[in-house]
Write a structure and sequence with these properties.
Length: about 100
Amino acid sequence: MEELSEKIEILERMMDDLEPNYKAQWEELSDDYKLGMINGIIAFEVKVHELQFQEKLSQNKKENERQNIIESFSVSDQDNEKLIAEYMLKNESND
């Protein structure tokens, strides 16, 4: 993607989704500084035709290690970690 506006849109959308804390910092930066950073970014699009996955959520760990992971993720300020903790708890009760 060559257009500056496309790069900015993608970068800011990624910050919204993946780095919301950094987004606030980003908004405080000068336009010249942002432009310098954006010019150093090569933006591209990937078309996914197939997605495969393997679920691995510390099943190989001892019970107390899994519980520590769940507890740590449960109190995280990251929504994804909280969701993983909930999922691990749900699957633990299904075993």
